[in-house]
Amino acid sequence: MRNLKKQNNRSNNKYYMYGKHAVLAAIKNPNRIIYKIYCLQKTFAELKAQLKSFDIEIVINDFITKKIGQDHPHQGIIAYVNSIFLTDLEQLDYANKNDRIAILDQITDPQNIGAIIRSAAAFGISKILIPSDNSPDENASIAKAACGCLELINIVKVTNLKSSIDKLKKKGFWIAGLDAQGVNTIENITNIDKLAIIIGSEGKGMRKLTRDSCDFLVKIEISPLVESLNASNAASIIFYATQTY
Q1: Confidence tier at 239 by pLDDT (50, 70, 90)
Q2: Same domain, yes or no: 136 and 174
Q3: Closest Cα partner for 38 from 18, 10, 8, 14?
């Protein structure tokens, strides 16, 4: 069994992660504490070489469904893990001169959060901020939707989002919020070196204090036949358009 030392300023939340992509990515992450892995016999036979350093228990399907519930595509493997969400903004590395940070303002749907994490990883964003209130703790649904990319992103749950945005500004970041009424286009922000992009909750968008903190309010031009974009779809578009490589 790999016994990793728990890092300071990380969440104490523990949960059962499920699915091959999520678990196999987790075992490669040195910051992830994995307490135990449970496998169906067939899955263990398939993944034995990759799992040999861990505490493994062969179980039946009913054991897994009792741990995570019905109707979850666990693919024959679950792992009991510790959250890797950070709790301190100062734990992040700001050395990159062409830096990108995503900020999720009260997005509560784990599927959307997981999809945004996956898009962030795809387009070079390694840091995400989320508020402590009105956003979920790290959980299996987020990990599954992120499809292994959760292990590639530093995610911080901050107590005060407005204060955290102010700290980012002091570190040289410009703040761009996605807003249906925004007067800026994505082209206005693509050449900014240090950029933090705020994605608001679906329906309500950004909160007023968050909105008022933005240097740019950016509108994604879409067909008039469509009212709005899903938060994760909008995030993918702006992450792609502002990537630095």
Answers
A1: very high
A2: yes
A3: 18
Question: In this structure, are 204 and 105 located in the same domain?
Answer: yes
Tell me the percentage of the chain whose pLDDT exceeds 70.
95
Of 90, 149, 157, the C-alpha closest to 125 is 149
Question: Tens digits of per-residue pLDDT, 183-199?
Answer: 999 999 999 999 999 99
This model's pTM is above 0.85? yes
Query: Average pLDDT in the 28-54 region?
Result: 92
Do 26 and 56 have their domain in common? yes
The pLDDT value given to residue 210: 94
Interior angle at CA 159, CA 203 and CA 116, nearest 5: 45
DSSP β-ladder status, 174-178 and 154-158: unpaired
Whether residues 70 and 123 share a domain: the answer is no
Domain boundary among 60, 82, 104: 82
Let me know whether 197 and 228 are in one domain.
Answer: yes
Number of residues assigned to the chain: 245
Q: Is the domain of 71 the same as that of 164?
A: no
79-104 pLDDT, tens digit each: 999 999 999 999 999 998 999 999 99
Report the candidate in 37, 47, 42 with the shortest Cα–Cα distance to residue 1: 37
- Domain of 57 in residue numbering reads as 14-82
Which residues fall within 8 angstroms of residue 74, CB to CB, at 6 or more apart? 18, 19, 64, 65, 68
**Which residues share a beta bridge with 217?**
177
